[in-house]
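Before we proceed, please read the two lines closing this message. Let me know whether the structure tokens fit the sequence:

…
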Amino acid sequence: MTQLTAPFRYDHVGSFLRPVALKEARSKFQKNEITYDELKKVEDQEIIRLIEKQKEEGVLAITDGEFRRSWWHFDFLGGLEGMEYYEKEKGLDFHNLETRKEGVRVVGKIDFVSHPFIDHFKFIKEHAGESTVKFTIPSPNMLHARADLNADIYPNDQELIADTINAYQKAIQAFYDAGCRYLQLDDTSWASLFSEESRAKLVSEGREPQQFMETLQYVINESIKNKPSDMTITMHICRGNYKSTFFSSGGYNFAAEVIFGGLNVDGLFLEFDDERSGSFEPLQYVNRADLKIVLGLITSKFGDLEDKEEVKARIQQAAKYVSLEQLCLSPQCGFSSTEDGNILEEENQWQKLALVKEIAKEVWG
């Protein structure tokens, strides 16, 4: 296997199930039974243990499992200037499930000055040694998709978008200056375009789907346009991942030309683990030989292992639209996009990653 640059032939989205010790410490901290320093000590210990486990398992992109976060997106967004994390009256509606009642809102002009995530990255890098560290943050599009906005502060979308882009450009440079060379943007906003039902919902909210899509594209490309040449930025496009359930369904068809032919990211992590994700046909719009397509063919939602030969056959199906040399393999999402985690055991997540690695070695050598 000759590929040594990210994203790797066998990769993963980033989050891992929270160990019992960490869950207990976070619960005690929320009840004011321990101090933040005591919580951080547990976080540090569990992250170091996770880093070593990833190395043992041959994981090429080392993460902290998002162990310091409650949510994959709110913790970062709430830490930006002009943003606030708060308790809501209602959670997000997932498939037959409502999330915890938490969110973020705009309380001032958005900017990036400093952020605890920079120190979080430095901690991983310090303990990962020579291994490649991948750090994940929510896409800038998630600020518009999930934050409660304030018309008094941002009377129009143009000002909000401009400040968001500026903040993310600063954030990307800050991560780079801290030593980050592999950054992933996680984004569920694209899923609003994937089904007729979700597009109709956009229209009911006063958003024209084509214009909405062009805005998503613009925000991504502008946010990453100044990235250093030796920094890899990928994007994970997700349909929701909360306690093994999902937020939306639909294939990539409507947005295929923009996603596969109009985004300037270095790689795309894509859900293709079940029928909700549609066919590989939209991959025909990939128009760059340097764009890596990471096929999420292994589900992170449940512990049962996929049939190896069936996964290999699906990779060959995808290769009808994109060169096999551009393809990679990963689970379809993280194992614990929130601290709640998906419905599987810690052993299962390592079995899943082992399967990804085994298949990749057999397909690419």
Remarks:
- The chain is about 40% helix and 15% strand.
- The two ends are 5 Å apart (CA to CA).
- The chain has a mean pLDDT of 93.
- The CA atoms of residues 313 and 319 lie 10 Å apart.
